[in-house]
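REQUEST FORM: STRUCTURE PREDICTION
Request ID: SP-0412
Submitted by: Lab K.M.
Chain count: 1
Length (residues): 183
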Amino acid sequence: MTVQEAVVNTDADDKGYVIINGRRIRKITTDPELMPKKKRSSSAVVQDAASKIDFSTLKSPLSKSELKEFEELLLAKPRDLFRAVDSMENEALRSDDGDTSNMPIHMADVGSDAYEQDLMLGMAESERTRIKEIDEALIRIRDKTYGVCQLTGEAIKLKRLLAKPWAKYSIDAKRQIERGIRS
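STATUS: Completed
RESULT:
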């Protein structure tokens, strides 16, 4: 009898293995009923608990004067960012690089120009994302939910808001997102 025949004729244990001639062999099957079940990770349970938080009832832990200060700070930021984005895009998309000589173009120069253009457009996209985050923060100020973590429902520390006024997650929640524990 071959190993294949022995595996087919032997029942697998709860983890999907059979013992043939003292060796533990994984039994492969396409039948979902016979396949061992995978255990759920604990992070899935944490995500389910977070989804039960009612964020509509949460209110900002900041005073009206603090909210007003953050609103003024956030309103001033987009103007500077719009100028920076416009400048970056114009720089990246300009067709004339200022070189008026009749020298042939070297492939390395083309690669460098493409890299520089891609870098500038990537930075402009990053700044555009920041403008969107600032707009969302202004909406949260208007709704009086500014300073509340969008994931946990806990207050975001004032020190974090001063460093990054458009933050929508507490430091712990952001770390969990970056590690893939939460989404």
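NOTES: Residues 42-46 have pLDDT under 50 and may be disordered.
Reviewed by: T.R.
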